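Suppose a classmate hands you a notebook page containing two proteins, each written out with its sequence and a corresponding row of structure tokens. How would you begin to make sense of it? This section walks through that situation. The first entry is reproduced here exactly as it would appear on such a page.
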Amino acid sequence: MSNEEIIINAIIEGASSLGFSLAKEEITIERSKDLKHGDYATNIALKKAKAFGLPPQVLAGKIKDSISSSSIDKIEVAGPGFINFFMAAASLGSIVTKVLKEKEHFGDGTSKNKKINVEFVSANPTGDLHLGHTRGAAIGDSVANLLKKAGYDVTKEYYVNDCGNQVEHLGASLRARYHELFGEPLVLGADDYHGEDLIKIAKEIKEKYGDKYLKDDQESHDFFIRYGIDKELSKIKKDMADFRVNFDKYSYESDIRKGNTIERTISELKEKGYVYVQDGATYLKTTAFLDDKDRPIIKADGKYTYFMPDICYHYEKMSRGFDTLIDMLGADHHGYINRMKSALAMKGYSPDSLEIEIYQMVRVYKDGVEVKMSKRTGKGITHRELVEDVGVDAVRYFFAERAGGSHLDFNYDLATSKSKDNPVYYAQYAHARCVSLLQMGGDIPLIEEPIMLKNEKETEILKQIADFASMIENAAENRAPSKVAGYIQKLAQGVHEYYADTKIIDRTNIRLSGERLALMKAAMIVLENALSILGVSAPDKM
């Protein structure tokens, strides 16, 4: 049980003995910024004074006197009615015992019995991933990891758009490159793909199949599209695996379009009165719910808009038993939110069953200047290139440490520097420092139930570690891996300052040294756990 939970339970029990009823969610426990004011504080007396018919200070005093807990050393009433708690040393130290016992499972939430689908990246398989995809991958994977840590049943999913105009252009571009290899002039349209990767794929086709697909018929048309998709998707999968992102499931638009799924869905929605025809196009009445205008699902030429297969895909996901769908989308998808929520409501699902997390654009700076083009290719910097240049750890950390709704200016120089100003290096160095201390004091038995850790730096680290589980819950609830990054920096700072100010290994006091080394091992474990959520490694040496 965390210190916050101990205090909350003590307040509820004490208030109950006074005839007052309090719920857990009503009580907020804050870390004290100044140890003179205790370890934790609550404003519950200020919040409930009117409801309980007592002045805040009087109510605070009564709650204070009603609390009895061996884990709490002292309680004080301060200011207009704040209640400050000073935890017993043994209570603070007990978190070390818990961490050393639970190891990588420390901070795991209890099972929520809820299934969540997190769909992210989902780049069209038509070329290299760009930095928007990189940010979506870093945030999406971290959100999924957070939710798993918090106790949810999570599926990481990638939706492959393998139909429509973009893959038609992919097939046409690949076919043009293939014909070029046989001496024919290269003919590429304005919307076709000019990437060098298609030249390599075309050469591979020629080596495997010779001139088999020179005849432009339906067979070759379908072949070039499917071959191109398979090769590009394979490349994306490798890029993601190298980025430590692995999906549980790949879903395909082509599967959605098979059979009569779309026609049946439109028929069902039409029976409910949500479909109408205007000017030759077919519309969905999304304004009946949350949308600002109705959306076309079939164009006047009879082709489906991209929205219609997407609706069927979201229905299919919900049919798998998910309680919540989370879509991680780029900055140009704001208008998508209410139309899809409306479509889900038409099927009887709660609009709240869908969450769409929007992440903003990325700019790269080097030597203080924005870098838009790659020196290697003269084109935009790709995901693969940035990861190769900077490293997985730095890219994943920097891309996840800022809230997705904020624009990200990626500082190339900072990300590759070995200084305390680089948050990745700073955090990893704290972990390596813990490992080094444990190696140096390897002959000293760890005291896993510390009672002598009382100085300010030790108390701060203990409280920071004790906050880990509640931070995970809060970050998961808010889909905010940036909160994990903030936590890592605070814990790393605590370790570095403790190392600088304290003689951790003191062979004249083996008992105290054993307790301090146990504290460092606990900090090391928690740093590993937190970094792993962001997909960042925790090296033993720097």
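The notebook's second entry, a different protein, reads as follows.
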Amino acid sequence: MQPETASPATASRNDWQTIRSLLPYLWEFKSRVVIAMGLLVLAKLANVAIPLALKQIIDALDKSHGVLVMPVFLIVGYGLLRLFSTLFGELRDAVFAKVTQRAIRRVALQVFEHLHSLSLRFHLDRQTGGVSRDIERGTRGIGFLLNFTLFNVLPTLLEIGLVALILLKKYNAWFAVITFITLVIYILFTLFITEWRMVVRRTMNDLDSKANTRAIDSLLNYETVKYFGNEQYEARRYDHNMEHWETAAVRNQTSLALLNAGQSIIIAIGITALMLLAAEEVVRGKMTIGDLVLVNVFMLQLYMPLHFLGFVYREIRHSLADMEKMFRLLHEHKEIADAPDAGVLQIGKASVRFDNVSFGYEPDRQILYDVSFDIPAGHTVAVVGASGAGKSTLSRLLFRFYDVGQGSIQINGQDIRGVTQTSLRAAIGIVPQDTVLFNDTIYYNIAYGRPDATREDVIAAAQAAHIHTFIESLPLGYQSMVGERGLKLSGGEKQRVAIARAILKNPAMLIFDEATSALDSQSEKSIQAELRGIAQNRTTLVIAHRLSTVVDANQILVMGQGRIIERGTHYELLAQQGAYAHLWNLQKQEEKIQLAD
């Protein structure tokens, strides 16, 4: 795949946009920024004054100027200037540290919160490894950009300006001219080569993100890899990405060597020309030995910042490239957003209404067609049907992970698009079909339903979900780790944790999306009574494949190809001898076969 390249004008515009995005974070500590800049100027003034003091000391000790006298005052001043040039720099770093770290924290938090505000569609399409690496590089780039732009680029330019001014005032104009020409050639060469290298760097970043995504995806699916014995296949796929990364990395390193060599040649020629000119002036008696040392020290002092300036510029460009990807996440469109006048959902005893709802995940993939039904307050409505009929889509729409294409969903007469997402989701609890747990303790995962719950509440929820005894049997009890995505627990144990979490949340509405699908028949029967208990007096939507779990529902909806094809109670539907009765008979036959085995 060819890397994307931008024109210089576009890249420059993007860089300025990235830099402007940081400015608001700096103004939180205006006084610290001002103090740091003041210390920066003082440090550079002290640094430029050091060669001037050294010239005076050397001239004072020069025998040709008469009787030698120990220039104690000058030597002490020289020592103090050395101290101040370092001390002011360290104080500057200490003062500015809070500005940098707070900016990193604020941006990282903003990106994190924005990612959580994006729609389910974005998160189904994203690659977790690549996104995490983009954020990691972007936050690291913020620290580098702030510190090195303010404390290396600006001070270096200030020092170059001061040195050029001193040389122009005190000596032959050619000293300033040579310094200026060397600087211009150096900067132009650095800009040209660095812009060329940025294409390689961007390619490296893309390949690095892809390799990281591949590795994380493979490790998250560790069991699947093992099931099929595909360790070597996964290794080859990962190495294929790393092979391309290696090629880009080699190009990056060799081009860096070329850049460094070119910079060294330019600086060496400039310093040689200056020293030849200074030596000639000394021979002609127009400059003293102290002046020669002054010019030499100035050049040595400028050599390192100039050489470092090339490195800093490269890294700033790299940081901007890294930050650009991270800030691009902030510009991801929020597909689902609160309306400007959105209010808090007035819940009370919730009644739910799906009114002629049509929906498709993609324009050419319609899932639901004119679905209408009511769940009266405190009632239980079950939805059954074959896989792919659109059952689970109902719960996603009720949670407003997506907005309906046509029609509306109302709770107590309020269109859910007109209330805040926070208040909507606070009113609904769910036990999903595929329970994914955080890589933390069992206690944490249950308490996630209500983080401010007491330990007694958490234990009570675990008891209601029939998992307390199992937890207590573990060596670490509630502090046992569940592993990545809960892989240390069985499917049934994870489902019970999810049920306990929903019980603890104590919502007005409940959704059971295949809530007992991972349980064996005995466990399913033991927990059904508890599910009925917690669903009592709550508005409940049950999505089920096993019909035996929904026989007590107030109403059962049978879905087929995105439409409700039958509705009624269990006995009414059996009497109709339609699709529901057919599914019921099939499942009864399966149960008989299993019992016979």
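A careful reader of the second entry would note: The longest helix spans residues 231-283.
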